[in-house]
Design brief:
The chain contains nine helices and 27 strands. It has 501 residues and is an alpha/beta fold.
């Protein structure tokens, strides 16, 4: 196919045909307030497919295996092997020749540390190799001779330090080193003239990307670097030379490189790009740019910011906090994850400007204590003229609230604030043990609490739910029918495993 989008469209067409024929089932789950769609095989269909494949397939995923399948199963007719999501710690040498083996999936064997150096010598027809989320330290040298390999996936191999020469792998189209521990670019990368996809995101130990390599990979359609690396930067003219690029994320050496690339976009370029210049500083991440630009922002997503301590700094006049008019007034979606040093999110003075906020997702912020910081010394009441004992609804358009893995979170908002419930559809709260209240605004009709009109579900742990404190004795009973238990295993399967390993 000529482009990634055309490939994706073709893939969806194929999947839809299988779904319509009831050979696949469609489904979805919610992650960070976004619906993620997937397809799966019904267990009976899967068993039938494996039976039909016979000795051509070894499919033993999620079987709790600690040992590799016996060598007698590795025959000359073997085509595909899937051993993903097991507990295999050691791979033995296989003496059998497997001239037809095209796919080997070993991802999510987190105890796997080593593979014999000559393991791949009998697998010359291998097309797809996935060792993602294993603990391997070194990739076997025999990988260098897999001349038919088209996809090599090494995502979140954090212990991986050595990758042998890739010079002979000229058929390779996809190389994913996301989150790996490599310190140097693999030798021979410039020879991968058919490479379409290269991802080096979160490769935090990678020292540099040598000049002169990118222009030789003229078929690249997807290129992503670690935004926050101090050394992994690219030359603007080299990126401009990649005429087929559709998705680019990375950091330039300086403003000149940035300007060279931005000027090239006038003649066309990627449909998706994220460009960085300079380094993220300690303290207030946004600085002057946020003060001047935050009146038009609709989506804010912040991830992996170890130094972020304050989201927004407000001024004070006569002891009353003052926020610039329009600040965050158009904000609809706010996502914060893996920012370990932030303790308070929104200020109380900012609440009046957050009337359009529809989604809040916060996860894996170890020190976060408050979503809306409580005002001190009655400042909030003075600013708003709030009468004592009167509850004020906040976030009037909120539809989704997700709070995951926040061990220090104590409150969502101050005692006289409650979350408006007219539009609220989804609540997901997991691993927030210190949070004791769920402050929701619920209407009384004829003296009885009425269910929230748009609520679809509340996803949380049953133990936490039973220990909650309620302002009204009927709230728990009214909301109970909407509760469903959370599944910790699904977090790993749904893409968050890389965060918590």
């Amino acid at each position: 196919m000529k482009s990634r989008q055309v490939e994706i469209d073709k893939g969806h067409t194929m999947l839809n045909k299988l779904i319509n024929a009831c050979l696949l089932e469609g489904g979805s789950y919610n992650m960070f307030s976004n619906n993620v769609y997937f397809v799966k095989m019904h267990d009976l269909i899967r068993d039938m497919a494996i039976q039909i494949a016979g000795p051509k397939f070894i499919v033993e995923a999620r079987k709790g295996l600690q040992d590799f399948p016996d060598e007698e199963k590795w025959g000359k007719d073997l085509v595909k092997v899937s051993l993903m999501d097991n507990y295999i710690s050691k791979v033995p040498y296989i003496s059998q020749r497997c001239p037809k083996l095209s796919t080997l999936l070993l991802q999510n064997n987190i105890f796997l540390r080593s593979i014999p150096g000559s393991f791949f010598v009998h697998f010359h027809e291998l097309n797809v190799l996935d060792l993602s989320e294993t603990s391997i330290v070194s990739l076997p040298n025999s990988v260098s001779d897999l001349e038919n390999l088209t996809a090599l996936r090494l995502m979140w191999c954090k212990n991986l330090k050595h990758v042998p020469s890739l010079a002979k792998l000229t058929a390779l189209r996809r190389l994913d080193l996301t989150g790996s521990g490599i310190e140097e670019i693999p030798h021979g990368l410039e020879m991968l003239v058919n490479l379409r996809f290269l991802c080096l995101d979160d490769a935090r130990y990678l020292k540099k990307f040598p000049p002169g390599i990118l222009p030789k990979m003229s078929q690249l359609q997807y290129l992503r670097f670690d935004w926050f690396s101090k050394t992994l930067k690219v030359n603007g003219e080299e990126v401009v030379s990649l005429k087929k690029l559709e998705h680019f994320e990375g950091q330039f050496y300086g403003v000149n490189d940035f300007n060279v690339y931005v000027r090239s976009l006038e003649e066309g370029g990627p449909s998706h790009y994220a460009l960085f210049v300079g380094e993220v500083k300690t303290g207030d991440l946004f600085g002057k740019w946020m003060v001047e630009g935050n009146t038009s922002l609709e989506v804010v997503e912040l991830q992996h910011l170890n130094n972020l301590q304050v989201l927004f700094k407000e001024e004070r006049v006569a002891s009353i906090p003052v926020v610039q008019p329009g600040t965050f007034s158009r904000l609809k979606i706010f996502t914060l994850s893996e920012c370990p040093n932030i303790k308070k999110l929104f200020t109380s003075a900012l609440l009046l400007n957050l009337g359009n906020l529809e989604e809040i997702s916060v996860a894996c912020c170890e020190q976060l204590e408050e979503i809306v910081a409580a005002a001190s010394d009655g400042v909030e009441e003075k600013a708003k003229g709030i009468e004592e004992g009167v509850d004020i609804s906040i976030f009037p358009r909120l539809r989704k609230l997700l709070l995951w893995f926040l061990p220090e979170l104590k409150t969502i908002c101050s005692s006289n604030n409650v979350i408006a419930g007219d539009y609220l559809e989804e609540i997901s709260i997991k691993k927030c043990q210190k949070l004791k209240k769920l402050p929701l605004s619920m209407r009384l009709i004829n003296g009885q609490l009425s269910p929230l009109p748009s609520l679809r579900y509340i996803e949380t742990e049953e133990e936490w739910w039973e220990l909650l404190e309620w302002d009204h004795h009927d709230m728990k009973n009214v909301l109970k029918p909407f509760c469903r238990p959370s599944d910790g295993l699904n977090l790993a399967r749904n893409g968050l495993w890389s965060i918590f390993v």
